Amino acid sequence: MVKKMFIETERLILREWTLNDVADQVEGLGNFETAKNLVVPFPYTAKNSVEYIAQHLKNTADNYAFAAQLKEDGKVIGGTNLHIFVDKNSGGIWINENYTGKGFGTELWIARAKFAFETLNLSELHNGFLEFNNRSKHMQEKVGYKIVGKSSMFCPALNRDVVEILTKLTKSDFYEALKSSAKLKAIYDKINIIENADD
Ligand SMILES: CC(C)(COP(=O)(O)OP(=O)(O)OC[C@H]1O[C@@H](n2cnc3c(N)ncnc32)[C@H](O)[C@@H]1OP(=O)(O)O)[C@@H](O)C(=O)NCCC(=O)NCCS
Are 44 and 30 in contact (CB under 8 A)? Predict the structure, then answer.
């Protein structure tokens, strides 16, 4: 277990999941347009959510999961996770379909990278996107991710195997991306990582 922490972006608070988040998580991940890009059970039920949250109530040194809560009204509109293995890491992000296209995904990707590189001192992040997920591809490339390979996986929402394009973000490519975009740098500058927050 690690000390409680929060990540604050301009419009979001990223914090540990609680069982009060079940309805918001089911609303977000229960949507086919979201789930078809992810490896989550489908249909995504309250039972799935309770099981996930029960396993992710507290972050540990190799497994972080954050609910993305709107500062404005407290609604959880997305999530992100980061699982650290000895030689690799994995995880991803999602935003409730009703809130996409408003820049929240970009805030979340940058917050995740800042946390990984500056708090956890990782040197690279490993991700991916399904071959038809042009939005995620665009977002990842925007913040500096490079394509490094291909894999195959089963997507429950589509009920078939799909091709995953594997990506990697190095610390230096992330900082290069921030240097080349004042907009991304402004988002990055507003992100605060609050470590060792009191329980
Ligand atoms: C991918 C996802 C996180 C993006 O979240 P979002 O809040 O819509 O992201 P943003 O609004 O910050 O940015 C979306 C970007 O994609 C672009 N975009 C939208 N549709 C696109 C498409 N079909 N092709 C390419 N780019 C697209 C937008 O123009 C925007 O880019 P810009 O900021 O350079 O203009 C969200 O759509 C999602 O959760 N999807 C389902 C789950 C998922 O795919 N997760 C990632 C798994 S790898």
Answer: yes
Give distance in angstroms: CA of 94 to centre of ligand 1: 9
Residue whose CA is closest, atom 18 of ligand 1?
Answer: 135
Is the predicted pLDDT of residue 139 greater than 60, yes or no?
A: yes
Distance 32 CA to ligand 1 centre (A): 15
User: CB neighbours of 133 closer than 8 A, spacing ≥ 6?
Assistant: 37
pTM of the model: 0.97
Determine if ligand 1 sits within 6 Å of the CB of residue 142: yes
User: Which domains are seen in the chain, by residue range?
Assistant: 6-194 (3.40.630.30)
Q: What is the pLDDT of residues 158-188, one digit of tens each?
A: 999 999 999 999 999 999 999 999 999 999 9
| Shortest-distance atom of ligand 1 to CA 78 | 39
